[in-house]
Amino acid sequence: MLLGFKTELKLNKAQRIALAKHCGVARHAWNWGLALTKQILDHNQANPDSKIKFPSAIDLHKWLVALVKSENEWYYECSKSTPQQALMALRDAWKDCFSKKKRVPKFKKKGRKDSFTLEGTVKILGDNKIQVPVIGVLKTYERLPQVLIKCCTISRQAHRWFISFRFDVEQQQSDKTSVVGVDLGVKNLCTLSSGEVIAGAKSYKKYEAKLSRMQWLNRHKIIGSANWKKAQMAVARLHRKIANIRKDTLHKLTTLLAKNHGTVVIEDLNVSGMMANHKLAKAIADMSFFEFRRQLTYKCELYGSKLVVIDRWFPSSKTCSNCGTKKETLTLDERVFECGHCGFVIDRDLNAAINLSKAVS
User: Fold this and answer.
1) Is the pLDDT assigned to residue 354 strictly greater than 80?
2) Strands (E) located in the chain
């Protein structure tokens, strides 16, 4: 299976400028291609009798070389694979849009999610050096895996630059046979059927007041000024810190579950529907249920364990884990489950986790 690796780069000033130029080329190619494809779609909608064939990524790159590169010499300062990969990403974005998986692609703005992909002469040199086209050799803070790679993506978060790539790894065989049910929650991140309760990071809640004040102080600064850029960078750093705390908690938990259990059972939650509840949306987003399931999916595959996703309509919270009697109604504020049939009393989340573990046995 393919495994992703991402680490921070150790750069000098010249390298930072080169990376920023590549980001600019990728962004310009994307925006040019998006504007052109939108014009073609508008023309086809207005003139159904004389439709223009929707261009492929190869067609867009040919037009880019003929029409755009000749007028913008700064394109030649960067790797030729940068605009190519940007147009290929645009093609994939339109495919997802046409198949109704995602919405219509949006234009990119400078300073927001800056990234670009390089292909060609990409190889790892030693423990903490990687060679990429045009830019040359880049250093990393972390030791790199000694593998063969064909392409890499470089991205920026606040003032830091990161490089990421994928490589093949062999799936491990697990000798674990235990089954664990995992019930996700808002008060605590999850409750395991073994009785363990994992507290959530709640990083956004912790830094919400500080973030709000920083944004409030930035409200009257002139857009584009030095003080505005400084304030924007401070806000971006805090956002990165909040995200990193959350990711660290999720990575540790999902690795623990996938490594130490043969079967992990979770519920198929309707996260988008839960986010519609404006009273709970902030707390649900802070727990990051979707990211938890994404990480658990590939880690179970990597470590040889099995992930079972139970249907969202399974009454895990309403069913008594002792006698199996189902309650007709159970409100959200009832945190303790009391069975009217056998008199069994148990924590609501633990009861749900035990029912999930029993669902596959």
Assistant:
1) yes
2) 2-10, 115-119, 123-125, 129-132, 136-140, 151-157, 160-168, 179-184, 190-192, 197-198, 263-267, 306-310, 336-338, 345-347
∠ at Cα 36 (31, 41), nearest 5°?
Answer: 125
Q: By the 8 A CB rule, do 140 and 152 touch?
A: no
Dihedral of alpha carbons 131, 134, 136, 139, sign: negative
Cα separation of 360 and 221, whole Å?
58
Q: Which two tokens stand for residue 20?
A: 């920023």
Q: CA 306 → CA 174, 293, 314, 322, 358, distances in Å?
A: 9, 13, 19, 25, 15
Question: In the structure encoding, which two tokens stand for residue 340, read together?
Answer: 């009217």
Q: Which long-range contacts (CB under 8 A, 24 or more apart) does 304-308 make?
A: 304/171, 304/172, 304/173, 304/174, 305/174, 305/176, 305/258, 305/259, 305/261, 305/262, 305/263, 305/264, 306/262, 306/263, 306/264, 307/263, 307/264, 307/266, 308/263, 308/264, 308/265, 308/266, 308/359, 308/360
Measured between alpha carbons, how far is 340 from 325 in angstroms, rounded to an integer? 8
Among all chains, which residue has been given the structure tokens 């990393």?
140
| Burial of 321 per CB tally in 10 Å (0-12, 13-18, 19+) | buried
By annotation, the residues acting in catalysis are 183, 267, 349
Look at the alpha carbons of 314, 320, 325, 331 in this order and tell me if their dihedral is positive or negative.
Answer: negative
| pLDDT tens digit sequence for 188-246 | 899 999 889 999 889 999 999 999 999 999 999 999 899 999 999 999 999 999 999 99
Q: Name the residue among 159, 112, 102, 179 with its Cα closest to residue 360.
A: 179
Taking phi first (over 0 means left), then psi (-120 to 50 degrees means alpha), and beta for anything else, what does residue 344 get?
A: beta
Q: Tens digit of pLDDT for each residue in 90-114?
A: 999 999 999 999 999 999 999 889 9
pTM: predicted TM-score of the whole model, two decimal places: 0.82
